[in-house]
């Protein structure tokens, strides 16, 4: 059991304002593995006041960007030295297989910290531009202010790093609000922030429930909210931010399509679909969950996916041989099972899997990897974000119909096309409305490239230079020509 009785506010461990607790339950054993203090609204007020003081009067926003880069590089060194410990925490609280936790939940965020510091080290913080009317114009890029970073449970370290690190490099003060399901890794990170030597007030970490999160999002002392979560919650966040004209970026849900052209190999597509989301039991926002296959080869693709997913080793996430663990909560498991039952009722063909628990895994919130074939675009399993290990295969007659089906969704986060003709793949990529796309692979999450969605998948971008710029305001300064007296 990990016990945390204090909150990290303004760079210090302090006594919370209430005695409320958040209990962390293992998705594998269904037993408690931790308990942490839950922030109340008074704790939010205290964190915002500390952040405002740090931003409005403290040194961090006024520090030379090169010094901020060096501070974050110290943080990266501390992070790198304790990667395995962090991976074990994530595996215990989320059920992510330890191999996946080490690679995607910790090593990937670690590399992202390095990528962001490299971007910030060469970033043009100030630019001189000749004006049209003969005057000089100076463009300054300045920190946006106090940032509330709201992070979900599925990829907590990755999403924390892609929000908090660029905000800090920009010169902002940050309040991190982790999900109630994943507070342990966030509090672990708080210790590293303290050790890295950030100035007082610059960082706070507040595990909290939804009501307290709403208080943070709607707080008038917040200048920007960066939110990752469901589309339904994103709409509520956007409405709350509108009341104060608070800047907001939203990375929301997805129902991404993998378009397999007639020249694609079903086994290759199946492996890419597996890699895109099964490591976290399908609980990945940009997972390829809709496979669009030529109608004449529909069974080939459904069978290849069924064969690929049936080889996944499911079990204890702490076992290095495990390839897929449980879903994060009982509620999430029941939700996914309900979608599977709906697919059966709607008349889709179950190629593999189903809503029954995997053999020998009656304890833990496990769901079988499931493939549906003979799916139509109108079915709920083809339209709703399931957020579990469920893949649907839909037929199309020609390229035009494939693109139409891919775009026939409220979401627009990611997608892919598989073909031996890269030029044709790029043409299709330009016609699918999404923020990211892959050709012959799932989207790679390259740290040099911006990531985000369109439509109901949100707005704003993380990663790349654009991820840093999302925490900066542009200031234009015009300078009059010398006056001759």
Automatic annotation (TrEMBL):
Keyword Oxidoreductase: yes
The keyword Oxidoreductase appears for this protein: yes
Domain Aldehyde dehydrogenase: 13-477
Record-level Gene Ontology MF annotations: oxidoreductase activity, acting on the aldehyde or oxo group of donors, NAD or NADP as acceptor
Pfam entry (one): Aldedh
Keyword terms: Oxidoreductase
Annotated catalytic residues: 251
Similarity-based family: Belongs to the aldehyde dehydrogenase family.
Record protein name field: Aldehyde dehydrogenase
């Amino acid at each position: 059991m990990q016990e945390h009785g204090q909150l990290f506010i303004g760079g210090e461990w302090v006594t919370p304002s209430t005695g409320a607790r958040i209990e962390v339950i293992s998705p594998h054993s269904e037993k408690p593995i931790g308990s942490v203090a839950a922030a109340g609204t008074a704790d939010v007020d205290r964190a915002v006041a500390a952040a405002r003081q740090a931003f409005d009067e403290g040194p961090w926003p006024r520090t030379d960007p090169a010094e901020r880069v060096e501070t974050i590089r110290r943080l990266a060194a501390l992070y790198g030295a304790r990667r395995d410990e962090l991976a074990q925490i994530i595996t215990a609280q989320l059920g992510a297989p330890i191999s996946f936790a080490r690679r995607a939940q910790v090593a990937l965020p670690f590399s992202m910290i390095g990528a962001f510091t490299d971007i910030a080290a060469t970033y043009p913080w100030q630019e001189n531009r000749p004006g049209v009317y003969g005057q000089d114009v100076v463009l300054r890029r300045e920190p946006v202010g106090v940032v509330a970073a709201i992070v979900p449970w599925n990829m907590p370290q990755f999403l924390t790093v892609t929000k908090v690190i660029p905000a800090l490099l920009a010169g902002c003060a940050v309040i991190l609000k982790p999900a109630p399901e994943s507070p342990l890794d966030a509090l672990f990170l708080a210790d590293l922030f303290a050790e890295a030597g950030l100035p007082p007030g610059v960082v706070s970490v507040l595990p909290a429930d939804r009501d307290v999160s709403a208080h943070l999002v709607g707080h008038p002392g917040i200048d920007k909210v960066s939110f990752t979560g469901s589309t339904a919650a994103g709409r509520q966040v956007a409405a709350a931010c509108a009341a104060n004209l608070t800047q907001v970026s939203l990375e929301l849900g997805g129902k991404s399509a993998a378009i397999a052209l007639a020249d694609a190999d079903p086994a290759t597509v199946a492996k890419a679909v597996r890699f895109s989301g099964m490591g976290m039991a399908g609980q990945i926002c940009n997972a390829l969950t809709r496979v669009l296959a030529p109608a004449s080869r529909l069974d080939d693709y459904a069978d290849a996916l069924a064969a690929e997913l049936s080889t996944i080793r499911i079990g204890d996430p702490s076992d290095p041989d495990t390839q897929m663990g449980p879903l994060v909560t009982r509620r999430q498991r029941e939700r996914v099972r309900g979608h599977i039952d709906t697919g059966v009722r709607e008349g889709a063909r179950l190629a593999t899997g189903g809503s029954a628990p995997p053999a020998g895994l009656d304890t833990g919130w496990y769901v079988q990897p499931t493939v549906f074939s003979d799916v139509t675009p109108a079915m709920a399993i083809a339209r709703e974000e399931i957020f579990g290990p469920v893949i649907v295969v839909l037929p199309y007659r020609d390229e035009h119909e494939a693109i139409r089906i891919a775009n026939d969704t409220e979401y627009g986060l990611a997608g892919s096309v598989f073909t031996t003709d890269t030029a044709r793949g790029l043409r299709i990529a330009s016609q699918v409305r999404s923020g990211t796309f892959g050709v012959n692979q799932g989207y790679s999450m390259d740290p040099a490239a911006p990531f985000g969605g369109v439509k109901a998948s949100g707005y704003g971008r993380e990663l790349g230079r654009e991820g840093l710029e999302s925490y900066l305001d542009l200031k234009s300064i015009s300078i009059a020509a010398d006056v001759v007296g």
